[in-house]
Every structure is written in structure tokens, then in C-alpha cells.
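User: I'm preparing a small set of examples for a lab meeting where we compare how different chains pack in three dimensions. I only have the primary sequence for this one, and I'd like the structure in C-alpha cell form so I can line it up with the others. Please keep the answer compact; I'll paste it straight into my notes.
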Amino acid sequence: MPTNPERARDDESSIDTQRPDPWSIATLRLIGGGQLGLAACPGRRPAPRKTCAALPDVERDLDAVAAWGAAVVITVMETDELEALGVAGLGNAVTRRSMAWLQVPIPERGVPDAADEARWTEISRALDLRLTDGAKVLIHSNGGLGRAGLVAALIAIDRDPFPEVRRAGDNPLDALAAEAIAQVRAADEGAFDGAAHQQWLQAYAQRSGMSRLTRGMEQSDLYRRVLGFLLGGACGDALGAPVELLRHDRDFTPFGPRGVREFAAGPAPIGAITDDTQLTLFTAEGMLRGWICRRLQGSQRWPPHAHNGILRWYFTQTHAWPMQPGPDGYLIQIEALHQVRGPGKTCLSALAQTTALGQLAQNDSKGCGGVMRVAPVGVYCEDAEAFDVGAECAQHTHGHPSGYLSAGWLACCVSGLLRGQRLVAAAAIADRRLAERPEVNAGGARALKTPRALANARAEAERTVEGGLWPSRIPASLGQGWVGEEALAIAFYCALLAEAWCERGDATVDVVEDAMSLAVTHVGDSDSTGSITGQLLGARFGATAIPPRWTEAVELRDVIAQLAWWLVGSATERLPAAALRSTHPGW
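Assistant: Understood. Below is the C-alpha cell output for the 587-residue chain.
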């Protein structure tokens, strides 16, 4: 166990020089309720007590503890220390007075190790309930200074609501530790002066403080939906990838009348994602880093950050980097994301020509490589902003209106779904934003392809729902999904059917499986149509609606969950930007 190189403040000589009374209780009132008391070991006096002769002092001191009103007494001394002082029966003496006794042993001149910290997590939860009710907790070490102050600061960190400890400086979680130390010293100015204790508390604040700030976040509706669209997109991608190259309907016969239902072997391992999910994750990371820069540097525009994100993806595929400085960040360190999984030629060629962040592609491509990656825009942007940012992000690689208007529509629709709207309502808002675009208002045939494809998807879905039977195949009028408006139309059609069937009472997981299977069981760009369908359904119904056998087997599930946690923590401002900067550096 690490030890403090400095002389501990718990030594024998400190007891009668740091306190006016050789044995007294220093009191600290906690934010959020409850009080802490800091004291030397009951029975402890300047002259060492090695025998049971100390017991009369123990009884007197514990009577004072009971009179002070302690509900809990925490001993941070090791058993051999108690025996050496002749107070081995301290715990029994405490409990006889109807006070709870906890021994949290920390070696003299030491700090807690990982096992101590794991045990402390449970203790802290129990203390939190008592302190919230206004209870008093006495903490004692040998001399009542070093280790007692450390544990008092631990409790102060665990109890301090984060919004109230924002201070000047780069890292609010460092301020969290500093504030806790200051509270303890305000109660007892002689307490807690070891550098090793301060360093350990700062590290603890980073670990537990981050977890505490996001407590309950994983049960939040937004997290459920963000994880849902990321996992749903990845599962649809992995489901459709092995059948993307099939060219005839008869090629789907081995999958049976219900279509593709399981991850299948292909050029990549079972459950493997393709460039669709890779690009989505790098777009998400770009938006996250954009949020950090907006908070810390005042940067206002989202698209250059998303562009930088997909440039990092480009590096994983080619090991080329068209700009300075070089690539960095979290996702680029994930070895599996360096696998080449059918990257689109348009994306590669457009990114290879990049000379500045935010540069728009100089091509006329209307492929689906833009629409299938922009859903993360909806985490941070809403309504018209989501549409415009999503469209511009797609324009970094796709210059045709079908390539970027479809992306704007999807980003806008996903933003509504993440905020609890039904699909038909979110789609109606996205339709209005699409109709407001200058390209569409001008009435040009190129720009009208996307609204017409969406209208066709809606009409086909209405006919299917009126017929009352789940379709075996996607209507041929929706196309094959190779271009932006077709991939979006197919996904929209499948998602509309899923919402309709769920609202009539069918089991959500079963309906989502039916819809995602339908989205990939066709001759065309099955991984992209599957991915976009999964994004819409995951954002609409949450991660638990995606069949568990898929989410448990899909590649990079843990990376996806971690990224979702960061996205939601930042979007809801539960995670401070400065604390995220080391993992997600800005530019």
C-alpha cells in the first residue's frame, strides 16, 4: 500500500500541540445535511496508554461522544493500533451506547488502496442515508488529524452537490477535492496537511466525483434513447452487411420466409460493423469534442468538429492525414476501428482532398454515405439547427442535394425522437424544415428527390398499415437504398410500420426485430438501410427495444455504451467540459 513520505499528523507528539484540549471533538456541518466530528482515539492522552488502564478515559470520552449526539463512530485505526493503546474493546464500548461502530482501517502514514475504496463505496451509501436525516458521525484516528481528516474529506466529497462547488480553474473536480479539504480545515485547522492525502483525494474526486455527477444518468430517458440509436444502428449495420452483395430475391431463400434475423458470417466476423457505424461513431466523437470546445473556447460552429471526426476515421482506413496537427482522441486508439470494412469511395476521395476543416465536397455524389452517419447531430441540436448542421456535415463528402438533404432530415427527426416525440410527429417537423430549404423552394428536380421519396415512403406505409398484414418485402417503389433519399425512404417506411404495430399493442422488441429484418432483406444497400432503420427505432423506443441477442453480440458494444455515456453526460451538462478534455482534446 502507498505510504505518505511526510511525517503523519497522527503521531504521538501531535496530540497535545494541535488541540487546546487533549481530547475534544471538532465539528463540521455538511452541505446536504448531517455533521461530522473529528477526534483523537477515545481514551487517547499525551502519555501513551499500553494497557487497559486507559479504559476509564475511554468510557468518559465515549460518554462525551454520546452526549454530542453521534449516531455512528468511525474508527480509521488498524486493530493492532487499538490493541497497543489498550482499547481493543472500543467497538463493544461504542455499541453499548446504542451508537453504530464502523472500522475503516487505514495504515498510519498511508492512503486507502483499491480494496479500501471499493469497501468505502458501500459504507458511503449507508452514511449518506443517515446524514441526509441529519445524523452526526464521529471519525477518529490516533491523534484525530491526518487519517480522520482524510475520511472526513471523503465524506464531504461524496456529499457535496457538484453545481455548488464550481470554482475558478481548469478542472471543477479538482475544485471538488480542494473544497472538501477546506471544509475539514475550517473545522480543525490542524487537520489534514499531508501532501499524499491531498493527491489521493484529488484522484478520488476524479473517479468517484465523475460517477456521482452522472448518478442515475444511465437510467434516464435520454441515455436510453441515445444508446438505442447507436446500438440500433450498429445492429442494423451488422445484420445487413453479410447480405449487401446479394443480387437476386432468390438469394434470400436460405433465410426463410421471415427474412434475415441473425448475424451471419461474411468477409468480416459475425456481428461485425461496417463503415456505416464507424463513421457514425467518429461523427459522434466530433460532436462531443465540438461541445467541449464550445464550453472552453467559445467555438460556435458544429460542422468543422464533425468534419474533424470523420477525418480521424479516414486516417484509420488509409493511415493518411491531410492536415496538421495529427489525429488524436479516444476512438482512434480502438484497434477494431482501424479495420477496413468497405469504406465508400466517395467518402474516401472527398476526405483525401481536405485542406481545411469544414470544407465542402466538390462533387455531385448523392450516395447514402452522408445520411447514414449524421444521427449524433440530434443529441446536441434541435429542430432547424439539427437539420442545417446535419445537412452541412453530409456536404463534407456528398455534394448532391439528395446526399445532404436526406442527412438534414434524419438529424432533425432523430433530435425530436431523442426528446420523446413520436416518429410521425418528429418526421412532420423534419418535413417542414426540408420544405423551407432554398433548394427545395426553388423547385429544382434534384432537390425535390428527397421530399418525394419521403412522401412515397409515407404513402406506402399507410397502405400497408391499412391492409393489416406485415409485408414480406419492401415496396419496389422505394428503390434499393444506394443513394441518400432511397436509403432514408426505406428506413422511414420500416420505422413507420414499427410504430404503427407497436401502438396497436404488439410487443415492441418483436416489432423492432420485424422492422429491422425487413430493412435488410432486400437487394440493395442492406447495411445502410438496416443501420438507419436501427437508428430511428433505437431513438424512438430506446436500447431495450433492440433484440438483446443482437446488442450482446454486436461488435464494439462496450465502446458504443461508453460513447453514449459521454454524449448524454455532456449534452445534459452533468459531465464538466474540462474533465473530458484529456480524453477528448479540442483543437
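A couple of notes for your slides: The first helix runs from residue 15 to 18. The domain at 219-261+271-356+365-577 is CATH 1.10.4080.10 (ADP-ribosylglycohydrolase fold).

User: Perfect, thanks.
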